[in-house]
Write a structure and sequence with these properties.
Ferritin, 3-stranded antiparallel beta sheet
């Protein structure tokens, strides 16, 4: 693939991915304000943006087999833990942006869990097995991730009550 095509596809993938997420956020706001059909429109177009992003990722050769995908995911989490969020944290501290500092801390703590979960998943898939059929819970405030049924009463990162967690 020509470098200019690859650069264009990477930028398109990033833009479509961002639009997908932004529209899901907009859908949540619309839903919470009682605008269910507006929320549905945002979700529908968000899905279209996902399709675009997936097509660009496929052209770039991003999706691979399960083991390679797990390693890519684990490596991405490791980058966020070791490089990205520490740098962003330093910038937020320098500019005394408390909200940015808080949200960066939330993300960093969740990413540590995600990296561990991907590593454990990779070990399981290497044995040609699937993961256990455990419940997965995500804190909607900070992204704390918990696998299993004995969910803590409050989120250990942000203190949100367990009844707010989203179950997957």
């Amino acid at each position: 693939m020509k470098k200019m095509v690859e650069k264009s596809l990477n930028e398109a993938f990033a833009g479509e991915s961002m639009a997908h997420m932004k529209y899901l956020i907009f859908a949540e706001i619309a839903e919470n304000s009682g605008k269910k059909n507006l929320a549905r429109l945002f979700r529908a177009i968000s899905y279209a943006e996902f399709v675009h992003a997936k097509n660009h990722a496929t052209a770039l050769g991003i999706p691979k087999d399960n083991l390679e995908n797990l390693e890519s995911a684990r490596s991405g989490e490791e980058f966020e833990i070791e490089d990205m969020y520490p740098a962003y944290k330093a910038i937020a501290e320098y500019f005394e942006d408390k909200q940015a500092e808080l949200y960066i801390r939330y993300a960093l703590e969740a990413e540590k869990i995600h990296e561990k979960l991907y590593e454990e998943a990779k070990e399981t898939v290497e044995k040609d097995e699937d993961l256990a059929d455990d419940d997965i819970y995500i804190c909607p405030v900070c992204g704390f991730t918990y696998v299993g049924s004995d969910v803590p009463d409050t989120c250990p990162v942000c203190g949100a009550p367990k009844d707010k967690f989203k179950k997957f």
